[in-house]
Q: What sequence folds into this?
């Protein structure tokens, strides 16, 4: 098979910029595709927080990017390489938009000019390809931030000498965030008001960029098979289920992978001791180390529940808040690491002050602590109301930290429920997104921990042997790109 030329454009890519799993996914997917022999280039904003010296980012071009009524905007293109793979990474430097602190916003509020920031990114990604005279077979865009690209390809770049034959693929990592903005954005996109109607960009008299991308992309996918089915219906589609249904034939679900180079308990420099399924003694040391660091009693016989997450409604944080005081009546310990909705910081910090012997809450984004919690806990809690894929449950499984999850999206696809009769399973699942179901399931896991140690050890070994690889995901994306490219060629003939 011939190698493909793939241009990706996104708001995040680890290790340069990451707010959640999108950054992990971009890094791993682009790396796996490059390792398979494809020419992969990624376009990202040059955020102020990116350390230009550490990553050796070098200016390679200056471009004039058309921004409709705003006129031409000058950007500097910087080039770097991702640390572990041969992916070309291009950064759009435009200080008035990107030099500030934060990726999407600050202190929980989105920046008010996110429409312009990400329209510039989208438009610049196309201009970079033209500047390099590089004809990608496909442009792979992610979430609303770059969803304008399929629209621009089908309109302003339809007859472009470089990009007219390029197909587009849109991956939906999260349907909640759609990029809905004032309709004045139409004049910046510059595609003409003829596209401002309910079957294209318009959504309640505003512009909806995700919807627009879904209408225009050659193919669409989400990050798990179950989520691909869920978004056909409300409430999962947040008002654009009609568009999802219209494009159902072009929609698929491709499960994310986990990065087992970074998440490997046998060789993780961030944890107190290495361990494997055949020798779990290191995991006990990790648990003690975690308890000591957090100031919890060093009791290895007490089950320790961990949660590492954005603290937002999607993640079912409100459900947890409702029952955590009751959970802490059980003989358990609990640790939360995360940041998000301000009410949750106040609530969990107060509770931690009231129950210091059982509960610790760390507000913040701390990658090393995430590793230590995932290694040192016995259970990993994810009560997500919806979860397009979810990566941390996969990390938890690799570390023998059994997931306790709501059976939705990628959580349902990756975690097998404990079956007490057959002793099969890799975690504990509940099927209704309610505080009561969460409480019962944590109770079930606790009871199993105290009364059926053999089952826990069996589940741990099974969970540790599971692999969700990016190589497999990359093969599926490759198929998707080839279908999209073929379809585009047929359409333009
Ligand atoms: P989402 O993208 O919806 O936030 P995922 O499970 O796909 O959820 O990915 C979350 C990623 O962000 C994981 O790599 C996880 O370890 C990381 N993460 C989330 N919150 C924190 C935090 N407070 N500190 C460190 N890492 C975090
Ligand atoms: C989103 C989703 C998460 C998914 C991640 C990477 O942030 O919330 O479920 O794992 O994207 O695809």
A:
């Amino acid at each position: 098979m011939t190698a493909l030329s793939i241009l990706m454009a996104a708001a995040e890519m680890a290790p340069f910029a990451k707010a959640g799993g999108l950054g992990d996914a971009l890094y791993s997917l682009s790396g796996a595709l490059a390792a398979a022999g494809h020419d992969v280039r990624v376009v990202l904003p040059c955020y102020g927080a990116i350390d230009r010296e550490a990553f050796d980012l070098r200016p390679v071009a200056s471009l004039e990017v058309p921004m409709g009524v705003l006129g031409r905007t000058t950007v500097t293109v910087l080039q770097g390489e991702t640390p572990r793979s041969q992916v070309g990474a291009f950064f759009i430097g435009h200080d008035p938009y990107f030099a500030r602190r934060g990726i999407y916003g600050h202190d929980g509020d989105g920046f008010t000019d996110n429409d312009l920031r990400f329209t510039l990114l989208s438009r610049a990604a196309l201009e970079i390809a033209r500047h390099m005279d590089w004809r990608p077979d496909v442009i792979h865009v992610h979430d609303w931030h770059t969803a304008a690209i399929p629209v621009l390809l089908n309109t302003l770049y339809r007859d472009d000498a470089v990009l007219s034959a390029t197909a587009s693929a849109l991956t939906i990592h999260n349907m909640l965030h759609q990029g809905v903005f004032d309709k004045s954005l139409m004049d910046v996109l510059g595609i003409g008001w003829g596209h401002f109607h309910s079957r294209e960009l318009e959504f309640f008299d505003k512009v909806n960029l995700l919807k627009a991308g879904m209408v225009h992309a050659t193919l669409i996918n989400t990050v798990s098979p179950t989520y691909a089915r869920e978004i056909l219906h409300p409430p999962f589609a947040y008002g654009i289920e009609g568009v999802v249904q219209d494009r159902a034939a072009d929609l698929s679900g491709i499960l994310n992978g986990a990065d087992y180079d970074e998440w490997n308990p046998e060789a993780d420099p961030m944890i107190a001791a290495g361990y494997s399924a055949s020798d779990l003694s290191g995991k006990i040391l990790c648990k003690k180390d975690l308890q000591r660091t957090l100031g919890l009693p060093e009791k290895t016989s007490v089950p320790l529940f961990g949660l590492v997450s954005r603290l937002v409604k999607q993640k079912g944080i409100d459900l947890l808040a409702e029952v955590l005081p009751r959970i802490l009546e059980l003989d358990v310990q609990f640790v939360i690491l995360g940041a998000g909705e301000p009410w949750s910081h106040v609530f969990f910090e107060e509770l931690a002050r009231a129950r210091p012997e059982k509960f610790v809450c760390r507000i913040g984004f701390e990658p090393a602590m995430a590793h230590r919690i995932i290694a040192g806990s016995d259970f990993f809690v994810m009560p997500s109301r919806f979860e397009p894929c979810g990566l941390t449950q996969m990390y938890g499984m690799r570390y023998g930290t059994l997931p306790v999850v709501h059976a939705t999206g990628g959580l349902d696809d990756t975690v097998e429920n404990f079956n007490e009769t057959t002793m099969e399973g890799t975690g504990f699942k509940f099927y209704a997104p309610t505080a009561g179901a969460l409480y019962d399931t944590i109770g079930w896991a606790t009871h199993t921990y105290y009364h059926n140690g053999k089952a826990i050890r069996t589940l741990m070994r099974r969970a540790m042997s599971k692999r969700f690889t990016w190589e497999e995901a990359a093969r599926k994306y490759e198929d998707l790109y080839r279908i999209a490219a073929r379809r585009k060629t047929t359409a333009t003939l």
About this structure: The CA atoms of residues 95 and 405 lie 41 Å apart.
